[in-house]
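Box 3.1 A note on notation
Throughout this textbook, protein chains are presented in two layers. The first layer is the amino acid sequence; the second is a token string describing backbone geometry. Keep the layers aligned when reading.
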Amino acid sequence: MAFPQGPSLCLRRCGYCMLKQPMRAKHCQVCQHCVRRYDHHCPWIENCVGERNHALFLVYLAVQLAVLLWALLVAWSGLGGGPLSWAWLRHRALLLLAFLAMAVLAVVAVLLLASHLYLAACNTTTWEFMSRHRISYLKHCEAENPFDRGVLRNLWRFFCSRRLVAWEQLYSPEDGGAV
């Protein structure tokens, strides 16, 4: 259902739970409920990431990255010392494999954290970024992102504002997306 332009936007009904969905909400097929400002369903935390916990999810990613970096430092200290030889490799093979696995996971954590910080700075979600062409209120929007208010205001709202936002009142596709 397309939202009409102007200040009086209709709320659409969820096709699964039949509740009126606020703008930017999506029904999660895994959790079986609608999530405000839906970003994604995270299998690692076994929960959806949305308006109320997205900032905490970024803190979670930052903590995971810090733990991985600390573990890399500990593993590196265990790898040091002695010339490279078959005996050295045989005694430290498991530690070397663990170091390499943690390095890969640290790269993944850095990329996830950077991408979510970018999305927060743009005031968009993973779902909106990946599925823009399928989302009714973004499909025909003139602006790239009608919810973008500038990096500082977006980050302030993302990290510091705990109140729920009525996105329908801020959405204005006809004036170039100024919200």
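The helical segments are 54-79, 86-122, 126-130, 136-139, 151-160, 167-170. The radius of gyration is 22 Å.
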